[in-house]
Write a structure and sequence with these properties.
This protein has helices at about 1-25, 40-45, 335-340, 355-375, 375-405, 410-420, 425-435, 445-465, 505-520, 530-535, 540-545, 550-570, 585-590, and strands at about 65, 80-85, 90-95, 100-110, 115-120, 125-130, 145, 150-155, 160-170, 180-190, 195-210, 220-225, 230-235, 240, 250, 255-270, 275-280, 285-295, 305-315, 320-335, 485-490, 505. The protein is an alpha+beta fold. The chain has 2 domains: about 40-55 and about 70-345, Distorted Sandwich (Beta-galactosidase, Chain A, domain 5), CATH 2.70.98; about 370-570, no CATH class. Strands 1, 6, 7, 8, 9, 10, 11, 12, 13, 16, 17, 18, 19 and 20 form a 14-stranded antiparallel beta sheet that branches.
């Protein structure tokens, strides 16, 4: 039986590896998404654009990718003009095309320590444009003027006799909430003779794209909150949906997302570490819209970006009256400590999931440690030490229970041989054996159960903590990315581990797998031989799935394994548990009576 189980497990693992290898080399690449281009893609090529006011040249986009070229559907009939706003942390590039923000350059955040991070792009939908329908490819012309206080104002008149004024500005020092926060004021003035009725409009949210080519698609999202609860969709939503295992299609692929919502507090576009979100301050959003677009790259398959808009409720303006609206914009990194200080649950953009409270506590604690020692790598090591210290007494009891179960293994084997034809009786006798010797069969599992929310909380936190970007640690250059020392070319077919360039050699996941094997060899042997052989594959499986994760997560798990190994060495120095039968509870209580 043991030999058959061993062969079955080996075949399953080989089959899994073979399937991944086949899909990596034989299946066709995903069909690129063709999205309607923004008219700004051609505005920069018009002759009139050369005479527009100069704009500070923004650095290259945030990754080595660029949007796929597409034919223009409409060419602006006016010269695009631009102005900038800056406060030392962010530089906003504003255009008269729609009176909105084309790019937000984060002056203190870089990619690969070279290029500044740029949110949105000039050839995508801008941030803060007001449109009747988000699918529109043409945006109206506004007049544009930069004021003495640094703000930028826009104005246009509509055929219905409406005058629309927009003003983008950073808050003065007395009202400043954060350097990444700006505001947009909008005034609708009815200069006509008839009441103006607006059935509803959309405010564009701009676009988002992966920071690195290997980022998980689930990070590229449209997010919003309703009553403080975060919701959202990612770029995977637009593909055809199938029922798992059976392969029957649940629904066909969708070209765009459009849904009504019940008064959303804010909405925004987000990737792994950065976001631009808009909070209406005098109304609530009632609809969300999003559309994917294709991003070509020099190597590997195309990536997907996402652009979106939020729908606002309609209004009525009598002749000569003005309706004023205000929107708060946050354009910057997803720093929980700064987002949590804002007033409309903006910190929910972090998308920590089920273990939100654990992630928030661990992130705040890690930042507190970092304030003392100044290095995020050592902060993770000390954070792991603190977590392990809290669980140390519980783990001691679990190790003691496992040592007792290991000592009981021969007796359990005898019972299994004796009652091999009667599983019910065998289980009863095994439980009786546990009870006679005071052994709790689940005692060794309790610390593991407690560590599950900690692990997943750390996984979610370390995967989105913008603080870890470009944070060094010994040989690691960026704790938010795999710690690749070099790449072996020609091995890109290896499932999960390989990429378009070959097989990356990531040191921390290898150390994590080695420490897992070391820990498993030190752990007292419990269960039958088949269970132990199954457990032998766990380090390999864990190594496969964590190999290309952030170095910070591998550092945490490796450090935790080393502390657990140290604890097991300490437990081994204690006397070997002696198997003695424990008196029943009733007899123990009578024994103490006079």
């Amino acid at each position: 039986m043991d030999r058959q189980a061993w062969i079955a497990i080996a075949l399953c693992v080989l089959g899994l590896i073979g399937w991944y290898a086949y899909t990596a080399t034989h299946l066709p690449p995903p069909t690129p998404v063709v999205a309607a281009p923004s008219p700004s893609a051609t505005a920069g090529n018009s002759p009139a654009a050369a005479t527009s006011p100069s704009v500070s040249v923004s650095p290259a986009p945030v990754s080595a990718t660029s949007p796929s070229p597409a034919p223009a559907e409409s060419v602006p009939t006016f010269a695009e003009k631009a102005e900038t706003m800056t406060n030392g942390d962010v530089e906003l590039h504003l255009t008269n095309r729609g009176g909105a923000i084309t790019e937000a350059v984060l002056l203190n955040h870089t990619v690969d320590n070279e290029r500044r991070v740029v949110l949105n792009a000039s050839d995508r939908i801008p941030i803060g444009a007001i449109v009747d329908q988000p699918e529109a490819t043409a945006l109206p012309e506004y007049s544009i003027a930069k004021q003495a206080d640094g703000s930028v104002e826009f104005e246009r008149k509509t055929p219905e006799g409406m005058t629309v004024r927009k003003k983008f500005f950073f808050l003065p020092p007395t009202e400043k909430k954060d350097n990444y926060v700006a505001e947009m004021d909008v005034d609708f003035r009815n200069d006509g003779a008839q009441p103006y009725n607006n059935a509803g409009y959309f405010v564009t949210l701009g676009s988002t794209r992966p920071i690195h080519p290997k980022d998980m698609p689930t990070y590229t999202r449209l997010a919003w909150t309703v009553n403080g609860k975060a919701e959202g969709i990612d770029v995977n939503w637009f593909a055809a949906q199938n029922y798992p295992l059976i392969g029957v299609q649940k629904r066909e692929a969708k070209p765009f997302y459009r849904e009504k919502v019940n008064n959303a507090d804010w909405a925004g576009m987000t990737n792994q570490f950065f976001t631009d979100l808009i909070t209406p301050l005098k109304a609530k959003a009632v609809e969300l819209w999003a559309r994917p677009f294709d991003i070509k790259q020099t190597e590997g398959p195309n990536l997907l970006g996402l652009e979106g808009a939020m729908g606002m409720p309609g209004f009525q303006i009598q002749p000569g009256q003005t309706a004023s609206l205000r929107f708060q914009l946050y354009v910057g990194p997803k720093l929980y400590g700064r987002l949590a200080k804002l007033e409309h649950n903006e910190a929910e953009i972090m998308n920590f999931g089920w273990f939100k409270l654990v992630s928030q506590f661990l992130l705040n604690f890690m930042n507190l440690i970092h304030n003392w020692i100044g290095n995020y790598g050592w902060s993770i090591v000390l954070l792991t030490a603190c977590v392990k210290g809290v669980l140390w007494p519980l783990q001691n009891k679990a190790n003691k229970s496992m040592r007792k179960m290991s000592a009981l293994a021969p007796k359990m084997q005898e019972l299994k041989e004796k009652y091999k034809d009667d599983p019910t009786r065998m289980n009863q006798e095994v439980m009786k054996l546990y009870k006679e010797h005071g052994v709790n069969p689940v005692g060794g599992c309790l610390p593991m159960m407690i560590q599950i929310p900690i692990f997943f909380g750390l996984f979610s936190m370390l995967g989105q903590a913008a603080e870890l970007r470009n944070a060094p640690f010994i040989w690691v250059h960026d704790l938010s990315q795999p710690d690749t020392l070099f790449t072996i070319p020609g091995l890109s077919w290896i499932p999960i581990l390989g990429n378009a360039s070959g097989l990356p050699i990531n040191i921390l996941p290898i150390l994590m797998g080695a420490s897992n094997i070391w820990l498993m060899r030190m752990t007292p042997k419990t269960g039958d031989s088949t269970q132990r052989r199954v457990m032998m594959f766990m380090p390999l499986i864990f190594l496969f799935f964590c190999y290309n994760f952030a170095a910070a997560l591998a550092l945490y798990y490796t450090t935790q394994n080393l502390f657990t190994i140290l604890q097991l060495y300490q437990n081994r120095k204690q006397p070997v548990p002696v198997l003695e039968k424990v008196a029943p509870a009733g007899k123990r209580s009578r024994k103490g009576r006079p």
